[in-house]
Amino acid sequence: MSCVISETHPGVEVVPQAVTHSFFCSLLQLTGVLDDCFCDVESIDVFNNFKIYPRIKKLTERDYFRYYKVNLKRPCPFWPDDGHCAIKDCHVEPCPESKVPVGIKSGNYNKYSQAANTMSDMTECEQANELGAINSTLSNQSKEAFADWARHDDAQDHFCELDDETSPDAEYVDLLLNPERFTGYKGPSAWRVWNSIYEENCFKPRSVYRPLNPLAPSRGESKGFYNWLEGLCLEKRVFYRLISGLHSSINIHLCAEYLLDEGWGRSVWGPNVQEFRQRFDTAETKGEGTRRLKNLYFLYLIELRALYKVAPYFERAIVNLYTGNSQEDGETKELLLQIFNEIKAFPMHFDEKSMFAGHKMEAKTLKEEFRLHFKNISRIMDCVGCSKCRLWGKLQTQGLGTALKVLFSEKEIKNLPEHSPSKGFQLTRQEIVALLNGFGR
Ligand SMILES: Cc1cc2nc3c(=O)[nH]c(=O)nc-3n(C[C@H](O)[C@H](O)[C@H](O)COP(=O)(O)OP(=O)(O)OC[C@H]3O[C@@H](n4cnc5c(N)ncnc54)[C@H](O)[C@@H]3O)c2cc1C
């Protein structure tokens, strides 16, 4: 959770200071054990700040992870669009195709089609364009398996509504050049999105008001809300805490890279402690801030657990983080495997076994409900009226959706064949990029 600010762009000055979330949290002396798991804030801080974050930062700077294909023009499916906001800092600069590494832009493994078997007449260059991410050393058997893989992928139960990567509106974005930070997006448009996420998608009856909700007639009453929350089964409580953790992450990032000064053609970005206090200080938030920060740690643990579970998928030699540059690809994979090794050594993982463990039929229904609620949240991201916020909102929900997909695919991941793609479990490049970048946040 540390966020070291280091990017430089023309006309933009960044306060040359290492800013960490734990620095913010230490302002509020956040300590102690987290609810619904056996882990404490201090252990996570040490583990993350020394072992994980420096490596994740390096990983997300590599080509495979910095280009994310996204459709920021999809209409809001729930209410008429607010119209895209005109705030300058909401602008997202798409990446010209010529800048995207050839291996990435020509598609990924599961876009493989039968056409590849009939390509013998093509020039090498044409083949590279068609096959794109497919490693040229693959056997025919593997190629066939990829075709199966693609079919399976279309039918797989996703936790997120995925953007259609073939839509002309889907564009590559260089995440390093479009960092998540303060944009000035706020007020009724932003509240409507948050409100609809919590009200309609967190299993909550309308009669229970969320604490301090600016859209609630009574501004929300915390006692009733927490009585309701505590009465829920673990799964539904977890759902609320994940969403609240995501909300905290977004709001912390806007405090950590705030627009501090602007004028004479240059902008100064840096941490805004005052803004952070207003959102998270116990006194300023009637105790809500501490809960919200703990939910962020909880979200971290869930994503960490998903990475632990998905490690065997990536450890197979057949999985190649392909950009077309074999040296770069080898180093990227090595770095990812180092991260998995650190994660395996962490002793306080969240135990997801207690989730969906009840009666078989009940557990199945609940899991499906969970999936559909989360999918709906990913659709609400198309209602965010600020492109930069929409980009990072979509990426982080897709990252969390991918983490949930991993957590509920334990059996399939265990049974992965070593030398061929599996029919039971598969991740697209977009999901991998979202999972690691989301965790990096
Ligand atoms: C998907 C999305 C992405 C965004 N990305 C950005 C961005 O990149 N940069 C940027 O500057 N702005 C971004 N915003 C806007 C930002 O999140 C806030 O909405 C905005 O700054 C206004 O803040 P606020 O203080 O009015 O409360 P909001 O954050 O809008 O929250 C509304 C209400 O929800 C409750 N609440 C707040 N935090 C939590 C929590 N963690 N858990 C539970 N309840 C909570 C409080 O009652 C609060 O009044 C984004 C908004 C959305 C919906």
UniProtKB/TrEMBL annotation:
<feature type="disulfide bond" description="Redox-active">
    <location>
        <begin position="85"/>
        <end position="90"/>
    </location>
</feature>
<dbReference type="GO" id="GO:0005789">
    <property type="term" value="C:endoplasmic reticulum membrane"/>
</dbReference>
<dbReference type="GO" id="GO:0034975">
    <property type="term" value="P:protein folding in endoplasmic reticulum"/>
</dbReference>
<keyword id="KW-1015">Disulfide bond</keyword>
<keyword id="KW-0560">Oxidoreductase</keyword>
<feature type="binding site">
    <location>
        <position position="244"/>
    </location>
    <ligand>
        <name>FAD</name>
    </ligand>
</feature>
<feature type="binding site">
    <location>
        <position position="247"/>
    </location>
    <ligand>
        <name>FAD</name>
    </ligand>
</feature>
<dbReference type="Pfam" id="PF04137">
    <property type="entry name" value="ERO1"/>
</dbReference>
<feature type="binding site">
    <location>
        <position position="181"/>
    </location>
    <ligand>
        <name>FAD</name>
    </ligand>
</feature>
<dbReference type="GO" id="GO:0015035">
    <property type="term" value="F:protein-disulfide reductase activity"/>
</dbReference>
<dbReference type="GO" id="GO:0016972">
    <property type="term" value="F:thiol oxidase activity"/>
</dbReference>
<protein>
    <submittedName>
        <fullName>Endoplasmic reticulum oxidoreductase 1 beta</fullName>
    </submittedName>
</protein>
<feature type="disulfide bond" description="Redox-active">
    <location>
        <begin position="386"/>
        <end position="389"/>
    </location>
</feature>
<keyword id="KW-0274">FAD</keyword>
<keyword id="KW-0676">Redox-active center</keyword>
<feature type="active site" description="Nucleophile">
    <location>
        <position position="386"/>
    </location>
</feature>
<feature type="active site">
    <location>
        <position position="389"/>
    </location>
</feature>
<feature type="binding site">
    <location>
        <position position="183"/>
    </location>
    <ligand>
        <name>FAD</name>
    </ligand>
</feature>
<keyword id="KW-0472">Membrane</keyword>
<keyword id="KW-0249">Electron transport</keyword>
<feature type="binding site">
    <location>
        <position position="279"/>
    </location>
    <ligand>
        <name>FAD</name>
    </ligand>
</feature>
<dbReference type="InterPro" id="IPR037192">
    <property type="entry name" value="ERO1-like_sf"/>
</dbReference>
<keyword id="KW-0325">Glycoprotein</keyword>
<feature type="binding site">
    <location>
        <position position="194"/>
    </location>
    <ligand>
        <name>FAD</name>
    </ligand>
</feature>
<dbReference type="GO" id="GO:0071949">
    <property type="term" value="F:FAD binding"/>
</dbReference>
<keyword id="KW-0813">Transport</keyword>
<keyword id="KW-0256">Endoplasmic reticulum</keyword>
<dbReference type="InterPro" id="IPR007266">
    <property type="entry name" value="Ero1"/>
</dbReference>
<keyword id="KW-0285">Flavoprotein</keyword>
<feature type="disulfide bond">
    <location>
        <begin position="125"/>
        <end position="160"/>
    </location>
</feature>
<keyword id="KW-0732">Signal</keyword>
<comment type="similarity">
    <text>Belongs to the EROs family.</text>
</comment>
